[in-house]
């Protein structure tokens, strides 16, 4: 299914409208599952491979040359993520984690006991938000408020809901790409009530980073694998919040000194992020993520193309009367179910045509299965490697399947 970079067909593929950065992808493959994980551009694969082949050392500890190279590049990756989020080093720092889920748990469960009286979340959250918010409320003996989201993605709240609250919501839904239009106001209102705003930005970092730049969040959580990078997570966190955490998930790399029964944590200055990075890190992954952010910054044209593909996809799907689209407006993530066809079966038929889409509830069971009582859905999610030919192929194959069944 994949073609090596060295294969002459890689060049041929670019003639078929595929970006040379994904020249390894065979033209018949139609990958439409970026909301789970994106494909990786060659620059990211090269950055990670280069680390393994040329300076495979540990960062943050060693004095030899390879280690210093790792440190420089890791530092660069932190800076790139801060710039991408539109935040200043003076106010925020970046820590690396396993993924968005891990980052959310790490920060949430290390908040000081009793500092907040409630957790506020929304009904269209991924289980990565839902489950930690349930366990946090139980462990802290605090209230948990699940608020509705408007069709335009805004959180429906009144300021009194936010009193001393941890507000934890997504900045883009993985069901239908909805984004909270009132996010900026939510940040202001949350802070005015003595609360903090934590953002599940797993989708937001790939598709709607401007909203993150404009929002005074306390922490935002992302996954490299959903933004063209390796499988790795990261947290962009306010230094003021980091200082207030009660870290207990600690170990090598998080301390300045340890005696028989005591320890001092690394909590200040340039290394403050270390308190969230216990143990040896995924150095190759961090360097690959740095390369992904650099690559993302060069994709203006592909971003425009993605916007245009969202329109084609949305309007193409609307044409079929058996189709029940969850989206109200075009977005890079679209979910639907079709009368008379099970979504899993549909995904299998599409797969026979080399079209890769997700089926099910996408880790949003609480909302889709139990609240809306929907059957399993089919989800199509776009990435910067998708071309008009992919959408044409998908819509054409879907039409054929629907006419046959
Ligand atoms: C909105 C959203 N939040 C959180 C997650 C969890 O991400 P990860 O599995 O990388 O932790 C996902 C993954 O699909 C997601 O789409």
Give a structural overview:
Helices cover 39% and strands 16% of the residues. By secondary structure, the protein is of the alpha/beta class. The chain has two domains: 251 residues, 3-Layer(aba) Sandwich (Aspartate Aminotransferase, domain 2), CATH 3.40.640; 105 residues, Aspartate Aminotransferase, domain 1 (Alpha-Beta Complex), CATH 3.90.1150. Strand 9 and strand 10 form a beta hairpin. The longest helix has 20 residues. The radius of gyration is 22 Å and the shape is globular. The site of pyridoxal-5'-phosphate has 13 residues, from helix 4.
Secondary structure layout plus pairing:
Layout: H1 8-15, E1 30-31, H2 42-54, H3 65-84, E2 92-97, H4 100-108, E3 118-122, H5 127-140, E4 143-147, E5 165-170, H6 183-192, E6 196-200, H7 204-207, H8 209-213, E7 219-223, E8 233-238, H9 239-244, E9 255-258, E10 263-265, H10 283-296, H11 300-318, E11 323-325, E12 333-338, H12 343-352, E13 355-356, E14 358-360, H13 365-371, E15 377-381, H14 388-404
Parallel strand pairs: 1-13, 3-4, 3-5, 5-6, 6-7
Antiparallel strand pairs: 2-8, 7-8, 9-10, 11-12, 12-15, 14-15
The protein binds pyridoxal-5'-phosphate (PLP).
Residues 35-36, 99-101, 126, 128, 170, 174, 200, 202-203, 223 line the site of pyridoxal-5'-phosphate (PLP).
